[in-house]
Design a protein that fits this description.
There is one protein chain. The chain is of the alpha+beta class and 539 residues long. The chain folds into 4 domains: 99 residues, 2-Layer Sandwich (Uridine Diphospho-n-acetylenolpyruvylglucosamine Reductase, domain 2); 128 residues, Uridine Diphospho-n-acetylenolpyruvylglucosamine Reductase, domain 3, CATH 3.30.465; 118 residues, FAD-linked oxidases, C-terminal domain (Vanillyl-alcohol Oxidase, Chain A, domain 3); 97 residues, 3-Layer(aba) Sandwich (Vanillyl-alcohol Oxidase, Chain A, domain 3), CATH 3.40.462. It has 16 helices and 20 strands. The chain has a 5-stranded antiparallel β-sheet. The radius of gyration is 24 Å and the shape is globular. The model has no long low-confidence stretch (mean pLDDT 96). The structure holds flavin-adenine dinucleotide (FAD). The site of flavin-adenine dinucleotide has 32 residues, from strand 3, helix 5 and strand 10.
Length: 539
């Protein structure tokens, strides 16, 4: 017996399923329990609990007209829908809905690559197109553009971008929503909307100029619940002639401040792609009791203590990998320039050469690339991290990440390390924040990741993770740091921190939601926005 949409009788639900079947073909309406179970969130912190978020059924359309038909049927019966592209959003809800009983609209069969133009630098795709599909399409045709992909290649440009997902090459392309241009959307009333230049019936530049005329509404569909996106354009990076990487190492803790300033300059001036910060002392934590004792001190080590420890072990305190893309001549000159600039500013800075490539790469060369996503090559290697091995016989079953956005400065990193250090201690979470460096996926801000384990067998682990997650969200918000993306179970908690002027943002979105989707059928609860009928009564 499925978890029915709230307020619906079994008879009504079955009538709706019959109507879905008439519109799509019975084989594209998923109702068998084992099949519906495939839409469970494999990383759910509520696994097997009565409150686990589960679908009632799924529908699998192939055309925009079928999506329109689904929306109209759902409206007639007040059935909540939950659209997914490839449904691989592990860590952020997988393919399970925000509201139990929703019917998943699985768009994987809408998988046409409509256009890739390597002269004007864009692609137009449907939601079911994966990063692997788009990459293969470009490779097979020898097109001179790169995609920017997240770590797992099985996801989709559309789904990833609509969750504000991120990648690994040049700043403007790493922000997948930021690099989209133009959408087609089926609205909650079944109408088809095209955004930007797409609103002009004979548009010639839908994927080139994003604003069109009037209000720019695309943002409503990212982490939002205002429609089902059926096409999306993306800007693509020109295939560079060459790539090279170099490592910068600096000897003192407070060198981080100047290092970030100079790396920011290089990045914002488009001389480098993603900078990857790290702390070489991390590798000494397991073997050096002196370092562990410093990290465990209340308040953490002083600058001098950490600097002395690093110097006595011949280690730098921080490092940053710089990645250069472009003509072979300019990547070499840019690396020389980066070295000169940083050496002049930070006494004792050292530099090491890393990989360099000329494109196109042969298939064998590609195999040998250690971090393929930095070259826009989709793959699944990320799942080997934390996998079962002799050293890790009981891997965790899943994870949630808290990823607060912090300013792009060394001072902010040091402050965040201190605050997270205190909160880890308060919550008994173990680990030390004092050597933690930020994730740099976003072009203009840092995020500091905090991971929480998920267990399939021990609900206590999950409850503790959720409790700790809520506390870290609260502490971060007190410091002006907010989450950029959320699993369904945390969406309300996160949205409640974006509370300026008595939650004006949420209230504005609710006003729009009630007007554009009065029956509240699209992705109820996504982004912390609920339709009226679910705001007014307990969920
Ligand atoms: C080990 C690991 C590493 C990861 N690394 C990264 C990473 O590097 N970068 C990153 O960004 N993420 C990462 N993720 C998270 C996730 O796997 C990816 O973001 C993935 O691309 C999302 O899945 P998807 O593309 O199938 O999107 P989907 O799951 O299909 O959709 C994502 C969200 O968008 C909404 N949506 C999808 N399609 C539509 C539509 N057509 N209309 C309206 N709404 C829609 C859905 O409701 C859903 O909430 C990682 C996860 C794991 C487990």
């Amino acid at each position: 017996m499925p978890t029915l949409p709230r307020g619906l009788t079994e008879t009504d639900f079955n009538t709706a399923l019959d109507q879905f079947a008439a519109a799509l073909g019975a084989e594209h309406v998923v109702t068998v329990d084992e099949d519906v179970a495939l839409y469970r969130d494999a990383y759910s912190p509520l696994w097997n609990e009565p409150s686990e978020l589960v679908a009632s059924a799924a529908v699998v359309p192939t055309t925009v007209e079928q999506v329109q038909a689904i929306v109209r049927i759902a409206n007639a019966h007040r059935i909540p829908l939950y659209p997914i592209a490839t449904g691989k959003n592990l860590g952020y809800g997988g393919s399970a809905p925000n509201l139990s009983g929703s019917v998943v609209v699985d768009l994987k069969r809408m998988n046409r690559i409509i256009e890739v133009d390597d002269r004007r630098g864009f692609a137009l795709v449907e939601p079911g197109v994966s990063y692997f599909d788009l990459y293969r399409h470009i490779e097979e045709r020898g097109l001179k553009v790169w995609i920017d992909c997240p770590d797992p290649g099985w996801g989709s440009p559309v789904g990833n971008a609509l969750d504000h997902g991120v990648g690994y090459t040049f700043g403007p392309f790493r922000d997948h929503f930021g690099s989209h241009c133009g959408m087609e959307v089926v609205l909650a009333n079944g109408e088809v909307l095209r955004t930007g230049m797409g609103a002009l019936p004979k548009a010639q530049s839908w994927q080139e100029y994003r604003y069109g005329f009037g209000p720019y509404v695309d943002g409503l569909f990212g982490q939002g619940n205002f429609g089902i996106v059926t096409k999306m354009g993306f800007w693509l990076m020109p295939q560079p002639e060459a790539y090279r990487a170099g490592l910068v190492l600096v000897p003192r803790r407070r060198d981080l401040i100047a290092l970030v300033d100079h790396v920011n300059y290089l990045e914002h001036a488009s001389l480098i792609g993603q900078p990857n910060y790290g702390c070489p002392l991390q590798r000494l934590v397991a073997t050096e009791p002196e370092l562990r004792a410093l990290l465990e001190k209340p308040g953490g080590p002083t600058d001098d203590e950490l600097d002395r420890f690093a110097a006595s072990h011949g280690s730098a305190v921080w490092q940053c990998e710089l990645q250069f893309y472009g003509p072979a001549r300019t990547v070499d000159v840019n690396w020389e320039y980066a070295k000169e600039r940083i050496a002049a500013a930070i006494p004792g800075a050292r530099f090491e050469e890393r990989e360099s490539y000329r494109f196109p790469l042969s298939p064998q060369d590609k195999e040998g690339v250690p971090h393929k996503v930095a070259l826009g090559i989709p793959n699944m290697a990320i799942f080997s991290i934390g996998a079962r091995s002799e050293a890790n016989p009981s891997p965790r079953d899943g994870h949630l990440w808290f990823a607060p956005v912090i300013p792009k400065s060394g001072e902010a990193i040091l402050e965040c390390q201190r605050v997270l250090g205190e909160v880890y201690r308060e919550l008994g979470m173990g680990g030390s924040a004092f050597l933690q460096t930020p994730a740099t996926w976003h072009f203009r801000a840092f995020i500091m990741l905090v991971g929480f384990s998920i267990s399939r067998t021990d609900p206590a682990v999950n409850h503790r993770s959720l409790e700790n997650f809520r506390r870290v969200v609260e502490v971060a918000a007190e410091h002006g740091w907010g989450e950029y993306r959320s699993p369904p179970v945390m969406a309300d908690t996160i949205m409640s921190t974006y509370s300026f002027n008595d939650h004006a943002l949420r209230r504005f979105c609710e006003t729009l939601k009630d007007a554009a989707d009065p029956n509240g059928i699209i992705a109820a609860g996504r982004g912390g926005i609920w339709p009226r009928y679910l705001r007014e009564t307990p969920r």
